[in-house]
Amino acid sequence: MLRLALEAQGHTVIEARDQSEAVRALQTTRPGVVLSDLRLPDGDGFGVLRASKELDPDLPVIVMTAFGSIQDAVAAMREGALDFLAKPIEPDHLLLMVERALSQRRLATENILLKEELASRRGAPQIVGEDAKLKHVTIALHRAAATDATVLLEGESGTGKELFARALHALSPRADGPFVAINCAAIPEQLLETELFGYEKGAFTGAANRKPGKFEIAHRGTLFLDEIGDLPLALQAKILRALEEKSFERVGGTAPLHVDVRVVAATNRNLKAAVAARQYREDLYFRLSVFPITIPPLRERPDDIPMLGRFFLERFCRDLKRKPMVFAQSALDGLARHRWPGNVRELQNCIERAVILTEGDTIHLRHLNLSIQETATAPVPEDNPWLKVDLSGSMAAATRRVIAEVERRKLEQALREAAGSPGGAAEMLQMNYQAFMSKLKEHQLA
Prior knowledge:
Rossmann fold, Helicase, Ruva Protein, domain 3
């Protein structure tokens, strides 16, 4: 009767006949709420309550008891039960209590996420720009969001990969679930596994209580694995299993935990080259890059620079409670000439600093503090190897020599990045293997 009443309201119900069966079910599933009678054929509801709290201290438990045993229900609440129901049970009362328990569960998860959000860097800019390359990325993002496929965001540092990941989550059917981000490069290797998968009480010195990992917290939501290219080899196999089987064990645990998580990964590394150099698992790479999206660097969409500059200027004037400001033409010219090696993040920091430094209402070039070497066309140093290219003879002959030099250096660079692997280097250059080997022989590199 209870199962039918709950399923009629859209809930999924897992039944257990006694304490031991309930404990097994708790270890293999992730219920949102536990409903248990205090008297069971084998064991009792106190055992189910303790097993639930051992699994997850925040898991809400509702106990049921006969009217004459209210004292037992009060004892159960002292041990951590959320509430109790006296039999005979009114279905409407049950449904109301279950909804309240699930709401409390969601609030607990949101509280964890809000604390992490407050601890992270303030503010996240919107995706701003009208460049054709950016529009292609946006179209791909919408297509990926409609599916549950794993997405790999590739791009240089500072291009806004986390913003695209958040946009992907917001556009997806999981938008009501949590968005959990973790930077795989920012956490020491020995701590990364516990951050991702959590740990059991007593798993190591100092583990006084059980701690849920990011995979658990992201249940029914999106997990963003930033800088996935820096993931240690030892962890790559466990990540692969979690992606393929949607299950894992906490550090120090033996029972598999099942989660429903959509993974979005990001990297500024060339993972194909890392695979060729045997620094990255090929099976994990293919599992991550089901739907790859490459975010263009800021220098490849120069028309978006003034628009982004004005966007950040307006935002920081508002955030810092400054009067509205404008850019002098010299400042706009400087922004356009700068190469922006740090991409959108560098531009954001540059404008924030300029708003702080500027006393009037106009930002000039001097306020931007841009590097002259990076802003202007840098002079060619005297020892530049390009000066050694033979430019004598006709235009056609000199051009052939320059092209040959470019090809030779590009081949050498690809071989270095692929750790000497011709196949990996050919893939990086988007050439077929035979054409690549022919070029190596042509330049006497093979």
